[in-house]
Amino acid sequence: MRALGDDVDPSLGANAPGPQVATADGGVVVGDANAELVDADAPATWKGPFTEYGRYGEPTGAQYVRCSGCGVEVLEGETEHATHRDGCDGVVEVGR
């Protein structure tokens, strides 16, 4: 029986600059200056605001924010009404 990774070329990614992370398919992901580092243990925060666009791609005039933990989106200023997805503890609101 072959072990997982026996067929992966050990020199794969050897010439890639910077930090390297092995991926499930045997490739290598290399971070760059524009990469967003994600800390899985960091508490969720609201990202944004982002411009909301309507059905035909026109801005609606509203703004929304997105939970970094589960991705749920809610209109800016209405975050206390957000229902977070399973497994997300939600965002700890300042002053609450």
UniProtKB/TrEMBL annotation:
Superkingdom per UniProt: Archaea
Pfam families the UniProt entry points to: DUF8118
Disordered: region residues: 1-25
Domain annotation DUF8118: ranges: 45-88
Protein name, per record: DUF8118 domain-containing protein
Organism of derivation: Halorubrum tropicale
Taxonomic lineage from the root: Archaea, Methanobacteriati, Methanobacteriota, Stenosarchaea group, Halobacteria
